[in-house]
Design brief:
Helix content: 25-40%
Radius of gyration: 25 Å
Largest sheet: 6 strands, mixed
Bound molecules: zinc ion
Structural class: alpha/beta
Strand content: 15-25%
Amino acid sequence: MKRVLLVLVVVLVGLAAAVVTRTLGVHSRQATVTPVAPEPLDSTVLAQRLAGALKFKTVSYQDSTQFEAREFEGFQRYLRESFPKVHATLKLEKVNGYGLLYQWVGSDTGLAPAVLLAHQDVVPIEPGTEGKWTEPPFGGAITAGYIWGRGALDDKGSLVAILEAVEHLISTGAKPRRTVYLAFGYDEEVGGRRGAARIADLLVSRHLHPEFVLDEGGALATGLIPGVAAPVALVGIAEKGYVTVELTAQAEGGHSSMPPNETAVGMLAAGITRLEHHQMPRAIRGPTADMFDFLGPEMPFGPRLVMSNRWLLGGILAAGFGATPQGNAMLRTTTAPTVLQAGVKENVLPSTARALVNFRILPGDSAGSVLEHVQRAVDDPRITVRALQETVSDPSGVTSVDAEPFQLLARTIRQVIPGAVVTPWLVVGATDSRHYSVLTPNVLRFVGAPIGADDLRRVHGTDERVSVQGYVNSVRIYIQLLKNAAL
Ligand SMILES: [Zn+2]
């Protein structure tokens, strides 16, 4: 017995020594850079130009017949008037109606181009919430140090900041060596198939192989990562896939006065319950593993120890990180029943009951593997399982953090925001950038606007806004990126 205890103690001491050695051995992955002097920009003028852009109701509706062409035309006219140098210097092509593709031709045709993406459209205001806004959603108000309105963060803030950066560089006499494309779709919020997808098709037909593509998807998080006081630049290196699965249960219909033991509604409900109890497995891998590699060294000793010893403590880390819906979404393919349909009358048994379950697919899984999982978990031959093909989009590829584009963006961010911690990130939503993945392996998703815990509900919600200072810094990041990458 003593011997067993002794062995146990030796093993534990050995493990502890290995864990501590490894923790002390990890070193920061942050690029060493010299901060640049802040680019002189007029905050008031910049804020007003963004505010003006937020007044156009360039809303994407699920029903495309509601598309309001006049709002998009007005918005594009506003861009021409607000950024005269951009429009005098860059080539502009309209793609499939309202898609905008600008080309700033570089002098060195041997360099692969850079492509900056943003989208012109915004989500609607949820009916009944208009009155809850501090400032009207399409009023373009600037108060209390913020620019208010739908699109301030998603994604006109980015679109206008990109144009602002190019306008500024042209005014300083800059001429690019590397060709820069600016590509602005107009239906990102409903899938991007008319805008971004068509622009990407055009670039494919021209055999373009960009050095990198930069889109929205990550931001400068302030106070969102416990243990890191500095702003954390979340650079999306991948995004989850998407599939909605339809479950249909069939049973005898008839009069509800003589129901059978099992009804379509009951079978379907049981199937959904089994599905919720059998989630896709949780795993720290790919972009999320990269994130812990980058964040760990910046953390206090305790969390650093856990993050850098995932070989031993991965389960604890996953359980802790996965305890919130946001954390959970970064660790697994998520299961979300969203639609239930059955029955037409309260005393008639429905012969079919239908449910839609939305899955967001972790890189490494696929729409095919999700479907297999659903069939296994539901485990009832009376329930047919089928993927809604029009919704299928597999997870994106994962951009290498060692490749130059990620490194270049990381250096740029730290030059402009000294002390910022840069980390790779898994985008759990979908962006227009997925349509560009055929063009280049280097797809990055980051906008330099600051996001606090409070802002997450504002995107697509009430009181969307961006701070004037944060917005101006996001313009500075684009300026510095273009200097580093293209000039
Ligand atoms: Zn967006």
